[in-house]
Write a structure and sequence with these properties.
With about 130 residues, the chain is mainly α. The protein is built from four helices and no strands.
Amino acid sequence: MSEKSPSASGSLHRSAHNTSGSEADVLSQGSDISDRRVRRREKNRVAAQRSRKKQTQKADKLHEEYETLEQENSSLKKEIGKLTDELKHLSQVLKDHEQICPFLHCTVNYVTVPRIADAVASCLPR
């Protein structure tokens, strides 16, 4: 019994005592395994490159979004500053106007006056 039957253990598994090409079968089997390893490594290498590229693109996109948001934030802060200055200015204008406004010093009760024009006329200096 120098050779196992192909149906019992597979066609590629032969005893080392076989004189009809067992060395070639073993070399062929080793070569097939080696080829599969090479293909698997290549496939894995390509997948890793693709993954790294995708990760880099995602990081680049996040960085661009960050830059855009920073610019928008800076612009909004400038607008807040301008609006704050405008509020201060208008508050001062109102305060200055309140000191000279004849309507604020008028003794006429506006609720009982039927027409605003009459109230304005009665409060204005003559």
